[in-house]
Design goal:
Largest sheet: none
Strand content: under 5%
Helix content: 55-70%
CATH topology of the largest domain: Helix Hairpins
CATH architecture of the largest domain: Orthogonal Bundle
CATH superfamily of the largest domain: MazG-like
Radius of gyration: 25 Å
Number of domains: 3
Shape: globular
Amino acid sequence: MSHPKYQIQDLEYLMSRLRDPETGCPWDLKQNWQSIVSHSLEEVYELVEAIENQDFDHTKEELGDLLFHIIFYSQFAKEEKHFEFQDVVQLVVEKLIRRHPHVFPDGTLESQRTPGQTISDKEINKRWDQIKAEEKSLKPQKNISKSKLDVVPSTFPALQQADKLQKVAAKTGFDWADPLDVFPQFQSEIEELKRAIENKDIVNIEEELGDLFFTLVNLSRKLNINSEDALRKSNLKFRSRFKEMESISESESIDFEKLEMEEKEVLWQKAKSRLAQADPSE
């Protein structure tokens, strides 16, 4: 039996049915802008995991879940007469055409640049920033920003927020010239954290640990490495090695939790060796 080929308007209709006051779903009817934010974040992380695992069936599913959340928010807006989903589509298409003049030279979706013309990434990024600045100057300002850092939302995840703050500051010239210049600051933060731990100064321990994280993000940025991606990869590596330790313990009838730390370290090295043989990137 073949399934019908649903379109985006079918998803909009489905959402309106779920939110129908008389015949809709009780759970969906209870939701509001704030209540599904945490669910939206979960969907984003699940999508990232599916992509990293190159699980494309799962990726397809997670993209659908994320799209559903966009439709959900658009339904709230429609009910409150703010905007509709079509307005979201209209706005993003207009913005992307405007920000890609090297692809759409006449500012229309139909226009095309002359084949063979080249433009560097540096030029593209510079023009992108210029257009964004022009757009911002045309928007009505509810609260006039006094700091360049105000463009970075405080609700961003901490690693992402640190990276964005540093990039904005760097555009003003407040930045190290070379990645190696970060190391004296890095060493200083380690020493300050060590002193706080030795003094059992709980307040300063948290502060100095935060400073150390911030400096690490700075180093990642200077090396053109995304700190979130780097940490996520380390998490995946730790997960696979720990699972391998558990697998070895089970195959050798070892009670892992009862092992001494030294014995667990031996098992850890064994797990690393096995995984490295199977995949050199480990």
